[in-house]
């Protein structure tokens, strides 16, 4: 057990790899504790696949060590540059949420450093209210120092993938819900530059961990670990490069290019799960002003209508999104602030254009609330406290637990203050 010291005074927030898009892991009025050096693997049981690691260990480190032994994280987000602590605090989901749920449901035990400096273990069976408040609790219940979680066995490190163009939004929904079509990992990239008869057209991308007998004879190493990124965007692109015209061209080209890959094909896991990791500083493509990620979940039975209305509103606003990803979510878990709910999730990358895009997001928030949905806190930068309350019905339950474990509100971030997450008292 390593020493982790909570400062005697002032507020504190823990930071993992800083991959949350908004202000969850920063604090302009307090201290930020970096967790990178808390990165040892402590135990691995190969009869259950349960790995115990310090919370600063990254997915990249786990992949590098465990893929060659035939194990893979049960749930992975779209980047391997996240810490386990950060991924649990956001209760991240992956392309397999409709089958596997969030990372949190594969966590068997956590060790937390509480505000008073005591270490406390919690799990779905022990101190369960603290456990479910910590999954998705954005670092505000305490510092996760260690976690035990399940890895899944794989026969190879490759992915058997397939891309299919869907002509409009209805076809996209149909495929994402078709259990015969579905695979272990399924997601749709939406061309949100197209309106009218192509409205909501997409490339539906699916895949599974390839079996040995699916690998081509010339595939050299079945447990090949792709090297980490070597290319980098060296400078901020000028802002004028990203405009409605270039976004429409990008979307058209991407749709044609990805749709051309007919039939199934074998690819390495990094190309399938982590396309953005291949390019360090990819955010510089958005120029100095950057961009906003906006991810929402809309529950069944309103999900189709809600997603349709959100996309229509986006297209009518004439502010294109560079990337839009649609995915079916399975059931919610017991995490009080966990984001996924059974239905659909839509993630958008929107160039930062100041008031224009902020107004748009406010209008989208209203639609999300109307359809009973919520915004993902790990990606949020703009939500208001009122909208948060309308979106997360178990917020008050979470606040009561926060009050018990951190009565002086030692754990605070810019996100928690902006959203008055711990309440106004
Ligand atoms: C390219 C890209 C793709 C992504 N794809 C997905 C996706 O598919 N699905 C998804 O769910 N998310 C996705 N994300 C979001 C990302 O997975 C989450 O934001 C995750 O929390 C980032 O982990 P981190 O270690 O960088 O945490 P940070 O950003 O550093 O922190 C995130 C939160 O976790 C808290 N935290 C960090 N470490 C600890 C700790 N040890 N104890 C307690 N709290 C802690 C912080 O206080 C903060 O509130 C993506 C992000 C990027 C950049």
Automatic annotation (TrEMBL):
<dbReference type="InterPro" id="IPR016164">
    <property type="entry name" value="FAD-linked_Oxase-like_C"/>
</dbReference>
<dbReference type="InterPro" id="IPR016171">
    <property type="entry name" value="Vanillyl_alc_oxidase_C-sub2"/>
</dbReference>
<dbReference type="GO" id="GO:0071949">
    <property type="term" value="F:FAD binding"/>
</dbReference>
<dbReference type="Pfam" id="PF01565">
    <property type="entry name" value="FAD_binding_4"/>
</dbReference>
<dbReference type="GO" id="GO:0003885">
    <property type="term" value="F:D-arabinono-1,4-lactone oxidase activity"/>
</dbReference>
<dbReference type="InterPro" id="IPR010031">
    <property type="entry name" value="FAD_lactone_oxidase-like"/>
</dbReference>
<dbReference type="InterPro" id="IPR006094">
    <property type="entry name" value="Oxid_FAD_bind_N"/>
</dbReference>
<dbReference type="GO" id="GO:0016020">
    <property type="term" value="C:membrane"/>
</dbReference>
<dbReference type="InterPro" id="IPR007173">
    <property type="entry name" value="ALO_C"/>
</dbReference>
<dbReference type="InterPro" id="IPR016166">
    <property type="entry name" value="FAD-bd_PCMH"/>
</dbReference>
<dbReference type="InterPro" id="IPR016169">
    <property type="entry name" value="FAD-bd_PCMH_sub2"/>
</dbReference>
<feature type="domain" description="FAD-binding PCMH-type">
    <location>
        <begin position="1"/>
        <end position="154"/>
    </location>
</feature>
<protein>
    <submittedName>
        <fullName>FAD linked oxidase domain-containing protein</fullName>
    </submittedName>
</protein>
<dbReference type="Pfam" id="PF04030">
    <property type="entry name" value="ALO"/>
</dbReference>
<keyword id="KW-0274">FAD</keyword>
<keyword id="KW-0285">Flavoprotein</keyword>
<dbReference type="InterPro" id="IPR036318">
    <property type="entry name" value="FAD-bd_PCMH-like_sf"/>
</dbReference>
<keyword id="KW-0560">Oxidoreductase</keyword>
């Amino acid at each position: 057990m390593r020493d982790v010291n909570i400062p005697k005074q002032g507020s504190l927030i823990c930071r993992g790899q800083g991959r949350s898009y908004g202000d969850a892991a920063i604090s302009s009025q307090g201290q930020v504790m970096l967790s990178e050096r808390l990165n040892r693997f402590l135990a691995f049981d190969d009869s259950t696949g349960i790995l115990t690691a310090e919370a600063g260990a990254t997915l990249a480190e786990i992949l590098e060590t465990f893929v060659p032994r035939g194990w893979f994280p049960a749930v992975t987000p779209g980047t391997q540059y996240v810490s386990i602590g950060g991924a649990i605090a956001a209760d991240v989901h992956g392309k397999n949420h409709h089958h596997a749920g969030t990372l949190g449901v594969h966590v068997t035990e956590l060790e937390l450093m509480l505000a008073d400096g005591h270490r406390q273990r919690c799990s779905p069976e022990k101190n369960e209210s603290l456990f479910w408040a910590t999954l998705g609790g954005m670092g505000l219940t305490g510092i996760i120092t260690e976690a035990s979680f399940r890895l899944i066995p794989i026969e190879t490190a490759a992915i058997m993938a397939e891309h299919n163009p869907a002509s409009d939004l209805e076809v996209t929904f149909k495929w994402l819900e078709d259990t015969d079509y579905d695979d272990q990992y399924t997601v749709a990239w939406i061309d949100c530059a197209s309106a009218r008869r192509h409205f909501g057209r997409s490339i539906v991308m699916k895949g599974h961990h390839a079996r040995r007998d699916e690998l081509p004879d010339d595939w050299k190493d079945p447990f090949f670990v792709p090297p980490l990124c070597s290319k980098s965007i060296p400078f901020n692109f000028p802002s004028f490069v990203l405009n409605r015209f270039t976004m429409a061209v990008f979307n058209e080209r991407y749709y044609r290019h990805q749709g051309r890959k007919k039939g199934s094909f074998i690819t390495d896991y990094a190309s399938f799960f982590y396309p953005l990791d291949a390019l360090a500083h990819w955010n510089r493509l958005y120029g100095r002003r950057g961009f906003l990620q906006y991810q929402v979940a809309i529950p069944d039975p309103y999900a189709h209508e809600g997603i349709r209305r959100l996309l229509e509103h986006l297209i009518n606003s004439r502010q294109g999104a560079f990337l839009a990803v649609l995915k079916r979510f399975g059931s919610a878990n017991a995490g009080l602030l966990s984001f996924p709910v059974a239905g659909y999730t839509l993630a958008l990358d929107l160039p930062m254009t100041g008031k224009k895009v902020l107004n748009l997001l406010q209008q989208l928030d209203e639609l999300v609330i109307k359809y009973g949905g919520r915004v993902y806190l790990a990606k949020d930068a703009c939500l208001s406290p009122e909208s948060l309350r309308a979106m997360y019905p178990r917020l008050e339950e979470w606040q009561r637990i926060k009050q018990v474990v951190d009565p002086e509100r030692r754990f605070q971030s810019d996100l928690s203050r902006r959203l008055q997450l711990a309440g106004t008292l």
